[in-house]
Specification:
By secondary structure, the protein is an all-alpha fold. Helices cover about 70% and strands about 0% of the residues. α13 runs antiparallel to α14 and α13 packs antiparallel against α15.
């Protein structure tokens, strides 16, 4: 069962939580700090099970008609798996949050609790952000929360330019990724931003948010801004030429690797800066 739960947590996407956690530590001025280890463990399997396990529980109807589900892009779960997913999610996340509340500054814990609640209610009723146009994309600002709570956990003020920049990036990427699911979401009555705007207007929406994020990144680090501008261009330019969900899906397969590219560029810059004393 553990192997199945790990599959449901989508290990290929753990980079989204692990990467931002590590970058948050670097931004706080540390190449490594043992105080980060419990947080880093939390954002691997436990937190990704919270994100994707809860999502799979409440998306069974759409997942059953979505051909891309059942592999690395997401699991097809069965009704008898719902209870184990809930139990394991609670047992692997709540103890961490209690530990953080006891050991970390309250500001860091507050961001962590918000991180958990945003992802829970992205899929779960009564809020279910993912089925509400614009809120589905805007709620994905939570992917940037580690850039806030990691420095706060280490007693350092976050770099808010980067926090808000990654929030804007996440809004853009979420709406963009939802384009491939327009047919399935429409068939089941889910009105996402992508369903509401259609393919081309969603591409424009994402382009605007990516432009905002790139401008904010540029305030802090020009190479990171350039890398993200190239990634955004590679994603939206082909879609303008062929505005279809099928094209969006083909681009999504490649886009999974892009966080590694942007993270490598940003990580290299930060490590060099820390080694040579350019960051506190």
């Amino acid at each position: 069962m553990l192997r199945r739960l790990i599959e449901i947590s989508r290990p290929v996407l753990w980079i989204n939580t692990i990467g931002t956690t590590v970058v948050g530590m670097w931004l706080a001025g540390y190449l490594w700090d043992w105080r980060v280890l419990p947080i880093l463990i939390w954002v691997t399997f436990p937190f990704n099970l919270l994100i994707y396990g809860i999502n799979d529980i409440f998306d069974q109807e759409t997942d059953n008609i979505n051909a891309r589900k059942g592999g690395y892009e997401g699991a097809h779960i069965f009704p008898n798996e719902v209870r184990p997913i809930w139990i394991t999610t609670v047992l692997t996340n709540v103890p961490f949050l209690i530990y953080f509340a006891i050991t970390l500054p309250w500001q860091a814990t507050a961001w962590m609790v918000a991180y958990s609640l945003f992802f829970t209610f992205y899929s779960a009723p009564p809020l279910r952000f993912k089925a509400r146009k614009y809120l589905d994309a805007l709620s994905n600002t939570d992917y940037a929360f580690p850039l806030a709570f990691l420095p706060l956990a280490l007693g350092v003020e976050p770099n808010w330019w980067l926090v808000i920049g990654l929030m804007a990036w996440s809004v853009a990427k979420h709406a963009y990724d939802a384009i491939q699911d327009i047919p399935q979401d429409s068939d089941t009555g889910i009105v996402t931003t992508a369903v509401h705007l259609g393919v081309k207007k969603t591409a424009i929406w994402s382009t605007i948010w990516w432009a905002i994020s790139i401008a904010l990144f540029a305030v802090v680090n020009i190479p990171v801004a350039i890398a993200n501008a190239i990634i955004a261009y590679l994603l939206v330019a082909p879609l303008y030429k062929e505005p279809t969900p099928e094209k969006a899906h083909s681009l999504y397969k490649y886009s999974i690797a892009f966080p590694y590219v942007a993270g490598a560029v940003g990580g290299f810059q930060l490590v060099v800066g820390l080694v040579f004393g350019l960051y506190p």
